[in-house]
Amino acid sequence: MSRLWATGEVLFLFVAVLQVIVMLRQYAFTAVVLGASTATGTYWSGWHGRGNPWQWPGPYPSAGGWWLEQSQEVLSTLYSTYWNGTYWVEDPSILQWAAAVVNTFVIDTQRTFTTAISQYNGNSHGSQVNAAQIQANIRKYYSDIETFYTSGEDVNQIFDAAYDDAQWVVLEWLEAIKFVNQYDAYSKLSFGQEDVAEFAHRAHIFYNIVQNQFNTSLCEGGLTWNPALAPYKNAITNELFVSSSIGMYLYFPGDNNSDPYPSTTYSNRTLPPLPYLKPHDPLLLTNAKEEWAWFKSHNFTNAQGLVVDGFHISDGQTTCDERNEMVYTYNQGVMLSGLRELWEATGDTSYLQDGYGFINTVINSTGWNANGYGQAGQWAGLGRNGIMEDYCDAPANCSQDNLIFKGAYFEHLDLFCEPLPTETPLVKGLTYLADQGLANSHAQKCRSYAGWIQHNAYAALSTRNATSDIIGEWWGASYVSPQSLPLTPQNPRD
Ligand SMILES: *[C@@H]1O[C@H](CO)[C@@H](O)[C@H](O)[C@H]1NC(C)=O
Ligand SMILES: *[C@@H]1O[C@H](CO)[C@@H](O)[C@H](O)[C@H]1NC(C)=O
Ligand SMILES: *[C@@H]1O[C@H](CO)[C@@H](O)[C@H](O)[C@H]1NC(C)=O
Ligand SMILES: *[C@@H]1O[C@H](CO)[C@@H](O)[C@H](O)[C@H]1NC(C)=O
Ligand SMILES: *[C@@H]1O[C@H](CO)[C@@H](O)[C@H](O)[C@H]1NC(C)=O
Ligand SMILES: *[C@@H]1O[C@H](CO)[C@@H](O)[C@H](O)[C@H]1NC(C)=O
Ligand SMILES: *[C@@H]1O[C@H](CO)[C@@H](O)[C@H](O)[C@H]1NC(C)=O
Ligand SMILES: *[C@@H]1O[C@H](CO)[C@@H](O)[C@H](O)[C@H]1NC(C)=O
Questions:
Q1: Residue 281 placed within a domain
Q2: Mean of the pLDDT values across residues 400-408?
Q3: What residues does 301 pair with on adjacent strands?
Q4: Residue 157: CB within 6 Å of ligand 2?
Q5: Is residue 430 part of a domain?
Q6: Under the phi-then-psi rule, with left for phi > 0, alpha for psi from -120 to 50, and beta for the rest, what region is 78?
Q7: 101 CB-near residues (< 8 Å, 6+ apart)
Q8: Is the CB–ligand 2 distance for residue 160 below 6 Å?
Q9: Residue 11's pLDDT band (cuts 50, 70, 90)
Q10: How many CB atoms sit inside 10 A of residue 353's CB?
């Protein structure tokens, strides 16, 4: 096995599992806190023979304190292994978009910890949580996030990359703004507020790259993946356009800084001033709605309902006539945060319905609903034995891009499943409130995913190396024979 397998792949996986665990917070923390202990042995150890093992959520199904502790440990190992004080270090060096996504996971984890201490406050399980220590950690990690902003992120490189890369940066700094606002609502301090204008400026610079790129000349719309290559209208770039556009509409505070350069050292090109973009500009909502309508009307799903990678346009054609059937995990999820926010902005529940549909398809495609051991162990489209897998996990030939896909899936599922607001709008004067019935049904649907999520989190934790604490990439490895590899539907993206 290559060095990349030994270290590189696990970085992303590590973050991915953190994200899975982190998402359990909303549904687990009110349950009884069991004593913390360390899981040992293989995935199956501790299974008491009740129910189907491929649906087993692990030994701590509802122990919020235990999962919180695991999250802290995973994050701490991530830092001690891969953070050099300014940057994520990897061999070979980390891809810029992936670094942006890792930083987004770190930011979202701080949001999760903030939710945890707010929920535990004054609650009977509060004794399990040392809120002061968690707050100290939040402040420490926040200063690393600031360092990554000022001295880590290689904005020059990513500025000239593809249209998907730019949008990960947009989502990254929007999450940072959301974190600051969430933390300050809890702490009643103005912690981090001095950074918001800068975060907004970076989100603006990178959104400006794609803002006007929805182009109807080919395939009646959509964005192309990379303007430097032949047009490829792929799922990720277009899902990101839903999520980044609606995220900008709701959470971007406006930016009057007209400096168009990603950094003071950028020298590739001379750029016109960055146009002013006001908060809640209707253009942003239009972009998100138009993009989702286009995505839905251009069959991006295979017979099983899984999102495929994208469409090429053959020579001399203007329609999306050549589909790449490859299925990746992140393509099933990155639109989810956008769909939820489209509901926030419009009150139209069809966006939520679309989201539930995609999530159910994914869960089923891991073999979760199998009717017996034999079927559970067979490749079901996106995994087996109830555990999510990318095609490259089992043969251990993932590219560095592939390695972070499952993490991105779970992050966006997490954002989708945040409780719907019933009393205080998320953005005053702009977002809708859910009636109690809708809020309950959303919570109930999301709670119904919790067993599957915990099953995946526990499987991932079971791959942890006891010496290094690093988690493996193929979460279901411990009970699948290496001979039974899935067949890849088409050679990965060209
Ligand atoms: C961390 O790694 C990056 C990328 O290799 C490097 O540019 C930077 O100087 C390193 N920072 C420290 C504090 O070693
Ligand atoms: C611009 O500069 C970056 C490094 O700062 C380089 O990686 C990239 O290829 C350049 N892009 C173009 C289009 O020249
Ligand atoms: C739209 O796409 C067509 C075909 O690729 C291209 O020629 C045109 O310049 C694009 N329009 C814009 C506004 O980018
Ligand atoms: C930006 O400038 C415009 C025009 O001067 C002004 O109306 C607006 O309030 C400013 N917005 C921000 C966020 O500073
Ligand atoms: C989308 O394409 C798949 C695969 O060709 C097909 O099975 C499915 O019926 C199509 N869906 C729609 C809505 O056309
Ligand atoms: C769910 O997955 C099972 C196999 O695990 C399959 O037999 C079944 O048809 C799937 N159901 C749906 C609705 O896709
Ligand atoms: C990875 O290995 C599998 C099994 O050998 C093969 O089918 C697949 O094409 C390989 N994928 C890549 C990206 O090399
Ligand atoms: C576990 O980590 C240790 C220390 O980094 C390493 O030497 C060992 O090879 C790892 N074990 C496996 C199975 O990867």
A1: no
A2: 89
A3: 307
A4: yes
A5: yes
A6: alpha
A7: 168, 172, 404, 407, 408
A8: yes
A9: low
A10: 11
**Considering only 54-63, 121-130, 271-280, which range has the smallest mean pLDDT?**
121-130
Which ligand has its closest atom nearest to the C-alpha of 82?
Answer: 1
Amino acid at site 370: A
Question: Which 8-state DSSP code applies to residue 387?
Answer: E
Give a yes or no: residue 106 inside a domain: yes
Distance CA 375, CA 461 (A): 24
Total domain count for the chain?
1
Domain that holds residue 142: 3-153+328-478
Helix axes 64-82, 436-461, angle to 10 degrees: 60
Query: What is the 458 CA–ligand 6 centroid distance (Å)?
Result: 23
Which pLDDT score, from 0 to 100, does residue 192 have?
A: 95
C-alpha to C-alpha distance for 20 and 450, rounded to whole angstroms: 10
SS3 assignment, position 483 = coil
17 closest CA partner among 388, 432, 441, 445: 388
Lowest-pLDDT range, 224-228, 415-419, 472-476?
472-476
* The token pair that represents 221 in the structure block: 């719309």
The protein residue whose alpha carbon is closest to atom 4 in ligand 4 is 256
Residue bearing the bigger pLDDT, 93 or 345: 345
Helix residue ranges, H only, 304-380: 334-346, 350-364, 373-376
Q: Which atom of ligand 7 is nearest to the CA of 488?
A: 7
Ligand nearest to the CA of 318: 3
**Which residue puts its alpha carbon closest to atom 7 of ligand 6?**
370
CA–CA–CA angle 392, 98, 334 (5° rounding): 75
Pocket test for ligand 5, best of 301, 320, 322, 354 (most atoms within 8 A of CB): 301
Report if residue 263 sits inside a domain.
Answer: no
* Least confident among 97-101, 199-203, 244-248: 97-101
